[in-house]
Amino acid sequence: MNILLITLLACLVVALPSASAQKVKWCVKSQNEMKKCQHLETKSSELECHLKSSVTECMTSIKTGDADAITVDGEHVYLAGLINYDLHPIIAENNKAVCSYAVAVVKSDTDFSINDLKGKTSCHSCYQSPGGWNIPIGRLVAQNKLPWDGPDDMPLEKAVSQFFLSSCIPGISKALYPHLCQACQGDCSCSQNEKYSGDEGALQCLKSGHGQVAFMCQDGIPSSERQNYQLLCMDGSRKSVEEYKDCYLAKEPHHAVITRKDADSQHIYKVLKQILASDLFSSAAFGGKDLMFSDATTELIELPKSMDSFLYQREDYYEAMRALKAGNPPAPRQDGKIEWCTISHAEQQKCDNLQIPSMECRRASSVEECIKKIMRKEADALAVDGGEVYIAGKCGLVPVMVEQSNQQSCNDGGEASSYFVVAVVRKGSGVTWNTLKGRKSCHTGLNRNAGWKVPDSAICGKTPDCTLYNFFSKGCAPGADPQSNMCELCKGSGKVVGDESKCKASSGEIYYGYDGAFRCLAEKTGEVAFIKHTIVGDYTDGKGPDWAKDLKSEDFELICPESPDTTVKHTEFGKCNLAKVPAHAVITREDARKDVVNILKQAQVNKLFKSEGERNLLFSDTTKCLQETTQTLKEFLTKNYIDMIERTYETGQGEPGIQCIYDFLQYLMNSSFIAMSCCFRLTK
To answer: How distant is the alpha carbon of residue 388 from its chain centre?
Structure first.
């Protein structure tokens, strides 16, 4: 009986469709969209259409797994990212029809600012449009310029009618809010029946004197008339219309395909790409406009896997959408407290045990997740290496304190700490820079400064198709793909079987971090270790832990491009290194700088730099003090270091499959796209 059952199950498994034939269940919200979707079904056997009554019903369906994807506008990208849906954008439309810059336009001969709008008359392109309502009203509420305590207090439309003396907001209910249609010259609809409808109408409303400010999209102002108008900036200043890139309310994000976070986003993208030639962006034949996708779309662009609603929309737009739903934000925190972001159980435990007044501890899964939390104001700070400082800087965060490993510099306020990245080999091994290819390597961790980014730049540079994966025969780079050659040499926690720590980017992996990479070399597992220049001296001649007690510093040497055929003493790192890089730094938002610095200065008398049980928790164990820095990101990282980092992104060799800064985001940023997303890398 059991044999028969097993045989039957095996047949069923064979009969199941393969993973490659997995259906993408597309959610449509009208009969016209259903017609178009069914037409596209004939072009791809992997597309399946599901009809729902609305966008929100589609989002619920995607959350439960009854559907997989839908294209939505910026407002719904915001809603999709909320906890009740927990969806995220995976593909973006490149669509020139979006309102790239929503602006507040006034006549040049007036003298009021955006802080003086109460009691003024207003013109809007259209109710609930990005440029005419969502962005301007959301931003005014988010910045506390338009008072509204939320929907429980009164409808937003009523708050707007109490704020402006009169308005023309085409599309709003004239019966419910006649005050908001008072300045209109027609039926107050978003149609040709209303003279002041659309961007052209809003500008005409302003021009004719029926309004004192027009909320619209920047490109709706004819170039021949721009000298007659100015823009109101959010900081209270005014600028010429030509300076709209420095004086706008917010940018409308491009429409995006959203799905569940556990969905196969690559498969969805692949299916869409396969049917692109089948009029994916044309709707006329199906009796509608912008069906499934915007008709003005020219291409679909796959987004980084780490993308979420907040990153996709940028802070300004995200806050505008939040304010539209919830009202004025709470007053800024005045208690001077901060929340430190931790990335492991051990770090959380140390952070809690420090019991630092005014500092609470907030757990995240990774440095990148911490950066996101800091951006969202869900956390305030953490210490990261130079490569991560660079990424954080792209996200608008700033370095405020630097780890200093030299006590004398702590005492006399010497220059900020930095270190040399070196390639260490065992004396007499025969390994030189010129014979490095095909060797076994030891790295502090994937994407870490000394262990990965710097050697990647030094070894591969601009060499096509070169990666550390294919340059070395095998290695240990904790955090790499467990199935890759860069996890082959990792040791894990030392367990014989069932070791979940193997190749993990945490101290549970014996070969993780500076000391771990050196141990990998010292135990003859690897033939070269990429580490900080002080490690050899700190872990030899009786100064290291038990595993290093018999190591002699004279048994280790350095190799470098400057001495390609020879080795040099480990003390000659000044002339034989791969790069000089900035020390680890504490990153935060500019608005939290003062509190973070004050609390860390007071906390240094605590056991801030001592780790129990595991290594380098919260800060590097070798840190003697934290020094405040007021340098800009470029000053702190230095031009040479930034050039090196960007060179790895430019060639796509910094990390497998990653071309975030150049191949992906530079193009998008130049097309007024989601510049905020430049802070995160495409994952493998």
So the answer is: 12
Q: Which residues contact 36 (CB under 8 A, 6 or more apart)?
A: 28, 283, 285, 286, 288, 291, 292
Q: Binding site membership for hydrogencarbonate: which residues?
A: 132, 444, 448, 450-451
Distance CA 370, CA 378 (A): 9
> 3-state DSSP call for residue 412?
helix
CB atoms within 10 A of CB 246: 12
* Token reading at 242: 């030509």
**Which residue, 169, 165, 155, 79, is CA-closest to 123?**
169
Rounded CA separation 531/308 (Å): 34
pLDDT at site 648: 66
Tally Cβ neighbours within 10 Å of residue 185: 15
Q: Which two tokens stand for residue 63?
A: 């959350």
In contact, 261 and 88? CB cutoff 8 Å: yes
User: Annotated binding residues, as ranges?
Assistant: 73, 132, 255, 385, 419, 444, 448, 450-451, 514, 584
pTM of the shown model? 0.75
In whole angstroms, give the CA distance from residue 281 to residue 275.
Answer: 10
Is residue 650 very low, low, confident or very high in pLDDT (cuts 50, 70, 90)?
low
Residue 184: C-alpha distances to residues 122, 168, 210, 216 (Å): 10, 5, 8, 15
For 611, the token pair is 């780790």
Which H or E element spans position 424? strand 418-426
Tokens of 368: 């990148």
Is-contact 497 486, C-beta < 8 A?
no
Angle among Cα 673, 679, 682 to the nearest 5 degrees reads 90
Closest to 389 (Cα-Cα) out of 95, 198, 631, 117: 631
Average pLDDT over residues 324-349: 88
CA diameter of the chain = 92
Exposure string for 637-646, b = 16+ CB within 10 A, e = fewer? bbeebbebbe
Query: Exposed, middle or buried: residue 195 (CB in 10 Å: 0-12, 13-18, 19+)?
Result: middle
* Domains along the chain with CATH numbers: 20-95+254-326 (3.40.190.10), 102-246 (3.40.190.10), 338-416+583-653 (3.40.190.10), 418-580 (3.40.190.10)
Q: Which residue has the tokens 């109101």?
A: 232
Q: Over 647-672, what HEC string results?
A: HHHHHCCCCCCCCHHHHHHHHHHHCC
- The CB density around residue 580, as the number of other CB atoms within 10 Å, is 16
Q: Are 389 and 636 in contact (CB under 8 A)?
A: yes
3-state SS track over 476-542: ECCCCCCCCHHHCCCCCCCCCCCCCCCCCCCCCCCCCHHHHHHHHHHCCCCCEEEEECCHHHHCCCC
Tens of pLDDT, residue by residue over 240-260, are 999 999 999 999 999 999 999
**Tokens at residue 514, please?**
């500076």
Alpha-carbon distance of 602 to 607, in angstroms, equals 12
pLDDT digit string, tens, across residues 510-526: 998 898 999 999 999 99
Give SS3 for 418: strand
213 close to 131: Cβ distance less than 8 angstroms: no
Return binding residues for Fe(3+): 73, 255, 385, 419, 514, 584
3 state DSSP class of 292: coil
